[in-house]
Amino acid sequence: MLKIDNLQVSVGDKKVLNGVTLEVSAGEVHAIMGPNGSGKSTLAHVLAGRPGYTVTAGTVLYEGHDLLALPPEARARAGVFLGFQYPVEIPGVNNVYLLKAAVNAARKQRGLPEVDAFDFLGLVREKMQLMQMDDSFLSRGVNEGFSGGEKKRNEILQMLVLEPRLALLDETDSGLDIDAMKVVAQGVNSLRSPERALVLVTHYQRLLDYIVPDRVHVLARGRIVRSGDRTLALELEKRGYDWVTGQAA
Amino acid sequence: MNALQAFDLPTSRDENWKYANLKPLAKVRFEAAAQAADIALDALPAPIDGYARYVFVDGHLASALSSTATPSGVTVEFPKLSASQSIVPAAKSRDLRFAALNESHATQGVRIATAAGAERTGCIELVFVATADAQTASSYPHIEVATGERGRLILIERHVSLGSDNNFIDSAVRMEIASGARVEHYRLQEAGPKSTWIDTLSAHVARDAAYQIYLLNLGALSARSTMSIELAGERAELALHCASLADRQQVHDAFAQVEHAAPATHSRQTFRGIAAGRARAAFNSKVVVRDRARGADSYQSLRGLLAGPDAEIDVRPQLEIHTDEVRCAHGATAGKLDDAMLFYLLSRGLEPQTAQRLLKWAFLEDVVAKIAVPQLRAQIEQGLAGQFL
């Protein structure tokens, strides 16, 4: 589904990714771990098409197509979803309005009619229940006045409604207490399926107790320095990143 | 001698007028239109349920288009104004000269008085229609409001153009808010695309009274609003919210002077302006806190959004404080759409154009969402959607 080959990325003069190679197949969950500043978030944002990054070398194929050639909105409509580490607040744009606009944008792409407003609200309510979000969410602005935990839940809610084929979740666990993390994990797990792939970017192993990955990769200084199964994450937890990166994290 | 000279009207060289576009004045015939043109009821904005509506066409009351019953607790009169009223321009501050021009030219005004007591809220809608071409005649809307103590009033004031889109409209509002009274004042400027709208509002707010102004600048080629509000009594409050949507060659300029003249007075100002094309949206506000106004609290939040490389935003909060123990804060920004917000929307699959329109809409919602008359808000949002979508 996703094939990254020797991806090199700069921000300004600074090289952030130094040749990342990674392959993710449908049905798989991959975790990308690494110390702060290792390039984890950059990787997620480059895949989603955030401006400000320069790809200097390498290729990214998504379902056989050149992902990097697409503008961000086309990637989203093709089924790529980025769950933000710091979701932005957009006062004045209603949560449900955005969800509906997003779903309709994807449907339009596929030649489908717009969703029925009533059915759609029912779907949103159902997913909100799963994410333990209360009704006030429906009338609020996007992330407006949300706590850190509410913002993360909202990201997962959007993901559940949009049903992406490839979800990139950037530090979705950061700032969550254990109960909130369970709710978020439950949401993510509900979306696992043989047709979908998930890439979790995380600093800590903790989230992986709840969302069990098929593969774990350690990113350091802009490249993947080690890959393994979930036991790699447990080992990292015990021994710290120095163990694989060979320098102070 | 023409009116420009006779009234010694401000020019763009005056400090408080440098952002206004006064050039169209050179081609204006300042005489008031002699009579009202005939207009059809369905040419007007849809009426608001529960509001008594009074329609003025080129400064003349159009009885056939107006309510016949006055809402209880309110008296509404339509004084004939004599064009020969003596005016001494020098007696007025230079910023208020256009009000002097109005007083000398207006033919018929509207005088609204609310009874004392909070039992009933008077709901009034005034629609001022300009039809005369500025080279032929001008329009002088003239409003005087006086509330009784603890009186309640919701006033909707709309300015629209019909027939010609090149009007000169010089409107003047005088607002006296008695102690404990509350007035919500919605002001919609939807004049024709070649029109000039010059507006002067003076308000006096007594103790424990509250005045809320919502000014929406949507139309006109050149619009200028001068608002002078005195918080005269203890704990008097003002909320002034202004939104401006300017495109093409439009210039929307507003200047507010808010005077805290008594202790514990409170003012809030919000401006959200979008300028696209070669347009300019300006909001300058000066808050003056007098020495007797201990405990005054004022906040100005002025934000402009540049929606094009040739557009201009001017926001300037000013403070003049003559006492201690006050809380005065302000924030002023002028910038482009927020990149992080834009990317967030794109990352959800929205088209760039849709995302931009949505963010502009959201920007104005800081003001529009505060409109507490649902039907009016719906009309405004519909109008905005028409401009955005």
How would you summarize the topology of this molecule?
The complex is a heterodimer of chains A (249) and B (389).
Chain A: E1 2-11, E2 14-24, E3 29-33, H1 40-48, E4 54-62, E5 65-66, H2 72-77, E6 80-83, E7 90-94, H3 95-109, H4 117-130, E8 141-142, H5 148-162, E9 166-170, H6 178-190, E10 197-202, E11 215-220, E12 223-228, H7 230-239, H8 242-245
Parallel strand pairs in A: 3-10, 3-11, 6-9, 9-10
Antiparallel strand pairs in A: 1-2, 1-4, 4-5, 7-8, 11-12
Chain B: H1 3-6, E1 52-57, E2 60-61, E3 74-77, H2 97-105, E4 110-114, E5 121-130, E6 142-146, E7 152-161, E8 168-177, E9 182-190, E10 196-205, E11 210-217, E12 222-231, E13 237-246, E14 251-260, E15 266-275, E16 280-289, E17 297-306, E18 312-321, E19 327-335, H3 339-346, H4 352-368, H5 374-388
Parallel strand pairs in B: 1-5, 4-6, 5-7, 6-8, 7-9, 8-10, 9-11, 10-12, 11-13, 12-14, 13-15, 14-16, 15-17, 16-18, 17-19
Antiparallel strand pairs in B: 1-2, 3-4
Helix pairs in contact in B: 3-4, 4-5
Describe it.
The complex is a heterodimer of chains A (249) and B (389). With 249 residues, chain A is α/β, with parallel strands linked by helices. Chain A is built from 8 helices and 12 strands. Chain A has helices at residues 40-48, 72-77, 95-109, 117-130, 148-162, 178-190, 230-239, 242-245, and strands spanning 2-11, 14-24, 29-33, 54-62, 65-66, 80-83, 90-94, 141-142, 166-170, 197-202, 215-220, 223-228. In chain A, the strands form 3 sheets. In chain A, strands 6-9-10-3-11-12 form a 6-stranded mixed beta sheet, sandwiched between helices. Chain A has a 4-stranded antiparallel beta sheet with strand order 2-1-4-5, with helices on one face. In chain A, strands 7-8 form a two-stranded antiparallel ribbon. In chain A, helix 5 (148-162) packs parallel to helix 6. With 389 residues, chain B is mainly beta. Chain B has helices spanning 3-6, 97-105, 339-346, 352-368, 374-388; strands spanning 52-57, 60-61, 74-77, 110-114, 121-130, 142-146, 152-161, 168-177, 182-190, 196-205, 210-217, 222-231, 237-246, 251-260, 266-275, 280-289, 297-306, 312-321, 327-335. In chain B, the strands form 2 sheets. Chain B has a 10-stranded mixed beta sheet, covered by helices on one side. In chain B, strands 3-4-6-8-10-12-14-16-18 form a 9-stranded mixed beta sheet, covered by helices on one side. The longest helix of chain B is centred in the last third of the chain and has 17 residues, at 352-368. At the A-B interface, helix 2, strand 7, helix 3 and strand 8 of A face helix 3 and helix 4 of B.
